[in-house]
Fold this protein.
Amino acid sequence: MKLETYISTYCHIRNNKILINGKPFIKDAFDTDFSIFSKKVYKDLNLSYPKFFKMDNLSKLAFLAAECVLNREKTNEDDNIAIVLTNRASSLDTDRKHQSSIQDKESYYPSPAIFVYTLPNIAIGEISIKHQLKSENAFFILDAFNAEFLHNYACSLLENNKAESVLCGWVDYDNEKYDCFMYKVSQIGDIKHTINKLQNLYKIKD
Amino acid sequence: MEALKLELKEKIIEQLNLEDISIEEIGDNDPLFGDGLGLDSIDALELIVMLDKDYGIKLTDPKEGKKIFESVAIMAAYITENRTK
Amino acid sequence: MSKIYLTYNNIISSLGFTTTENIENISKDISGIEKIEDINLSQTPIYTSLVNTIKLDNTFKKLGNINDFTRLEKLMILSLHDVLTESNVKITPKTGLIISTTKGNIDVLDSSSKFSKKRAYLSELAKQIQRFFGFKNEAIVLSNACVSGVLAISVAKRLIKSDMYDNVFVVSGDIVSKFIISGFQSFQAISDSSCKPFSKNRTGINIGEAAASVLVTSQKENLAPDAVEILGDASCNDANHISGPSRTGEGLYRSMLSAFNEANIKTTEIDYVSAHGTATNYNDEMEAIAFDRINLEKVSINSLKGYYGHTLGASGLLESIVGMQSLYNNTLYASYGFDEIGVSKPLNIIKETTEKPLTTFLKTASGFGGCNTAAIFKKVL
């Protein structure tokens, strides 16, 4: 059974800018690092969620993109929204921090608050907790944004009734460099969910 | 002891990333866990690392932590008595 | 709707380099967990289950240069090579490769490693495996904490159903490293003796290493004698806490419910449950609550962590393969290390390895990030 599927909202976060449905959400670009930028976005989104400041950069990036996409849609706890995220660097950015805490015998103090983020799917956990999504989820590592794979996997979840909609994305954070493209797929929306369209949307520039 | 309490409050805010909380908001006898600061099980483990790293106190049973981390005042008293650095 | 099967398989672990060798040891009540003193892994002695390095290199020599590949790559290549050879499947553009791992080549980040730090990228690991065997498609790496191994089976099934592939080879693996041990030690989750899943006196987990591989296919004409059909599977999040399991077992309960709905069978039709059972206080209690909620409390159940420790990204697949052998041999394997029930809900823990006709089993796993997976398998006959 092949379903007609659509993209309802999409969001890009890169170069300290956010685009929602291709339009700038925060206009000014900041010549600053991600930690300051992400704090500014947190405030612009009027969030009051102290746990945000405990997250690692990968989770912060995914969390903010999910806010941008899901806030545009009416969602409630009964909505069965699956989460499928992909990236290149997995959690390496935080892995390196954990490694540096155990590298020397003299300063060997592994931190549980860092170690827990050495799994990429923690970012999915953070989004699930915030939006109370008790749904299908998976984190995949690929060499680059892979529209075909994301398209096929999201469709299989929808066609097999494993979810009513799927929050999909590419969320990569590596050595201060980051790139995020997130979107929601379901049977409702204005943009046809095709591999070609995904490739084009991913490449959008402001 | 007052200096240690202040130091602990600063460390708790910094190490547990309590972005929206100031030193003045943590009373000496306020409960750290439960509703107060919104700390969770990972924070408790993180405090155990802090005791080891900054004060040379090794806790091997997380249950011990529960009593020690009841409030800043109790933590300060425990550290004063047991610190090795 | 086409049926999807798990067929040719391999396990490389402390208990052997083939599935058969592993099962022989399990049926003799032999555990691969030992006390190890190695400062490259831990500052204090640990109980862990390791693959013998000399045996690994000696076996690998026949396939390639032992210095060109990391420990994990050698484990994965050996394991997958066995399955490719046994299955005799030709790699075509419709053959997929899924790699399940939590930390991949994480040991290369250590300053003592002779490999480039680039090798820590999971896509680099994927390329090594892909190129070695000449897979035509980019390997898909699944890194979803401790459910990865079971979830990888679901993903393979879904991609075959969506017509992306005809056959998918799934290879899973993780090694014991200072990185992992230190992290779990900081969580105070590591047991100072052999682990005792679901027991009253359980004191935490042991970490182990292994690689396991399987062929997932819709082609019924090429099935091994131990093949099983995947009846249903699901993976639901707790949405509760990033490291602590849900107190109500919500995500695991929902995963099982969804898997049962897809399989369209009743819980009374399950002959055996292969639980996650890490032997931490909270995990085992959470599982017992979830099994009780879905009425599986009377079904024979075990955790295989007492034989292997927690092999992370490999565990779900490794334990599913052991489950396949349980069905094939009509044997319930003892839950190694169990003494007295130590969870708040009743469970029918397998105390002794016993023969019994078996047709269907349920595999579950849970992990950090609030993830849970359940999958139901049935003997093909």
